[in-house]
Structure formats: C-alpha cells, structure tokens
Amino acid sequence: MKIIVSGAGKVGQTLAAYLAEEKHDVTLIDNSPELVALVNETLDVSGIVGSGSHPDTLERAGAREADMLIAATPVDEINMVSCQVAHTIFGIKKKIARIREESYLSPTWSNLFSRDHMPIDMVISPEKSVARAIMERINAPGSFNIIPLVEGHLQLVSVLCNDDCPVINTPMKQLYTLFPDLLFKVVAIIRGNEKIVPEQMDQIRPKDEVYFVVASEHMARTMAAFGHEEKEARRILIVGGGNIGICLAQELHARNPSLVLRMIEQNPEKARYASEILPGVLVFKGNALTRELLEEANIGYTEAVVSVTNHDESNILVSLLASEYGDPRTIALLSNPTYTPMASSLGIDAVVNPRSITISSILRHVRYGHIKSAVSLRDGFAEVMEVEVPESSTALLYKPLRSMKLPDDTILGAIIRKNKVIIAHPETVLHPNDRVILLTSHKQINRVEAMFSASLYGSYF
Hints:
- The protein has helices at residues 10-21, 33-42, 55-60, 76-88, 102-105, 126-139, 172-178, 219-225, 243-255, 268-277, 291-296, 312-322, 354-363, 445-451, 457-460; strands spanning 2-6, 25-30, 46-49, 68-71, 94-98, 122-124, 145-149, 154-160, 184-191, 194-196, 209-215, 235-239, 260-265, 282-285, 304-307, 329-333, 350-352, 371-377, 382-388, 410-417, 420-423, 435-441.
- It is an alpha/beta fold.
- It folds into three domains: 2-124, NAD(P)-binding Rossmann-like Domain (Rossmann fold, 3-Layer(aba) Sandwich); 235-357, Rossmann fold, CATH 3.40.50.720; 358-460, 2-Layer Sandwich (Alpha-Beta Plaits), CATH 3.30.70.
- Helix 1 (10-21) crosses helix 13 (354-363), helix 6 (126-139) packs across helix 9 and helix 6 (126-139) packs across helix 13.
- The longest helix is centred in the first third of the chain and has 14 residues, at 126-139.
C-alpha cells in the first residue's frame, strides 16, 4: 500500500519505520526540516517538509495515488483538516486521525466524524487507550501487561517470573502436561535483551518476562501457576491530573463506583479542574515526591499507585517512594522504552508505554485481508495478530498444524471457534472462519498476511 503519515514525532517515526519494514510505500510529512532530514537519513521512507493539512503538501506526498492517510501530529485540528482535504480533494479511501481533545470525543457529538461531516474512518484517542490499558493492569494484579483479544474471549498477558515461580526450569513440552485443564499457551519470552519465540524444549528462567495467551475464564488460575495471586486493588492513588489521569479516574469510577480514588496533581489549575470534573475523587495539590503529601493522601492504606505524569523520571521516583509504604501495586507510565527493562528491578509492578499503545491501535486498522487486529509488543520485536481463516483456503483447512509451514519466529497460540477457546497443539486443524491468535516477528508479517489470504497463499508455500 501507499501510505502517507502526517507528523514525524515519536509515534509518526516509529509507525513509518514499521510500515516501511513491511515493504509499504511510506511518505512522512512534517513542518520541521530537521525531523524530515533525520527521517530521510535513517528510515526507508520519503520525508517531505510541509503541513499535512495543506493540499499542495499532500499532492507532493503522492496523495492522488495513496491508499491511506494517518494523521498523527500533536494538533487535533491539523489532523482533522488533513483527513478532510485527503477525502475531498484526493479521494483517499482510508483516513486515520489521532484526536486528543475530550470535547471532540464526547458521545454528544458522535456523528462529527462521519463521511457526511468530517470523513475520518478511525479516530485514535491516546488518552482513552492508555487509560483502558492501565485499567486492565489494575484488574489483573500480577500482570506486567495485559491485552484483551477476540471480544474478550482471550487475554494476552505478560508476567515477570520471580525466583519462586512454580514453573521455573520447566520445558514448554512439560509445562502444558502439568496443567492439562488450563487453556493457555506461552508465545514469547523476553530474557534481558533476548527475545525468544519458544520451542518445545525452551525453559522459563528467573527474571524472564513471559507472554502467554489464555482463555479469560482461566486467567486467575493461570496467573497462580506462574506464581501470581495478588488481590485486586480497591484503594487507588493516581499521580498526575492531566488528560490520562482524569480519563483513568472516570473509567475506574464508571466501572466500579465503590472504589476509593485519590489523586495528586502539582499544577494548581489542573488540580482545581480535576476536583471539579471528578466529584467522587479527593484531589490533593502538590508534589507527589514529598513524603508529607503522600502521607496526607493516605499512601499507607493505598493498594495501588498509578503514576501518569508527563515525566518518566517522576513516575519512576513516585513508584520507588510508594514502595516504602506498605506494599502497594505500582503502575508507571513510561514513554521512553529504554526504561522498561529496568522497571522490575526498580520495584515497578507494571509499565504502560503510551507510544506503543497508540501505534498498536493504529496498526489494527492498517492490516489488510483477513487480519482483524494486531498488537505490537515491546518496540516492535513481534506482533500478536488475530486472523480469520478464509473459507476458500484449501491449503490451510482441515490439516494438522504440524504440517503447516509457518514462517520462522511464528507461533500459533489459540483458536476461537464458535465462541469456544481451543489451545493450539500439533494435531489441531483449522476450520473455516476460525479466529486464530498467533505471534510473529516483525519481519515475517508480510508472509503471515499472505498466508491467510486465499489469493496469495500459494505463492509463499
């Protein structure tokens, strides 16, 4: 596909790099000559200086031949106008925009982003996506990361395995025989800087971060098998009263009004606004890195501390301070991916990377054919995909998985068939319209897409 990305910030650059690696024809637009020069030097994309909302810039970017526009600048209005111009003048079929302002996203104006008004096919709200990701971690204590799949039938979960983890040094081949009634499968292991797609004799070691897919109803028992039986938090302190903090508080209260929610915000205006818009939340004004304020916010009785300020270092320090008061679960917003591998050694229980979440949200709408969704893991080392098996693919249907020539660094984890979860094993066969959950390395994505496309499958295998 020919794809135009407007905005060469962290999200735009990372997204463009992923798409270019998958052999898409990518053009990246930005007002900054320095950023465009960097893009042209380091990425296999075409960088153009200009505004993505200007028709002449879009034309120079090849909009007349483009299949998709992704508007990811920091300014909502530029993203919105970019999509309007792309639709009206150039007829670009698919338009995705990053929109952050809550007013635009209110259900009151739900018809704003429609073909007859503002023609945006998919609106990505980073704050809402991040808030939901944090909620999933709060609701699954012990998880380092958790992502719902296939309308909630499955969960993709990552856990950190401590020295006392019951399944340490157990080969994959034996792991599933130990828990024959649990519907789960390990799909990836991160060991320091090493990323492993596990084979039968691979073992889990202390300090590994393990990703597995699991049937939602077996979630608690599978977490226990990996040594995690923490209780769900009822008393929660949110540090940071910006858009993410406010959205998180609203979502938590809507899901469970009985939760005890407190918030700390240093900026006086933001603190005042948060107290007005969140009547059920006690908001403290001040620096969360002061012990006096933490104690005033009743940190000793808090069961979870979620730090979502705009500064990674502050979020890390808040988590470290909080760990000195009892044993609250700590969740930190970390935009810099270099901090993530250090999180567990710093005592942080879970990490949320807003860039990774935003990119995953966008990638779900870039994939084509029978791929229904895609989630990028840990700076793109792999993607977990939800794929539908086409009815016309005779090369895939009714044959055991052991005979299927999966691309390298690819593992099939689970199948949803008529709302029933099936964990994949060598003798499993695929049926028409099965939903398949698989993990593949980034470089194999094109081959996986072709594999599940009836028209292309034969050219690869």
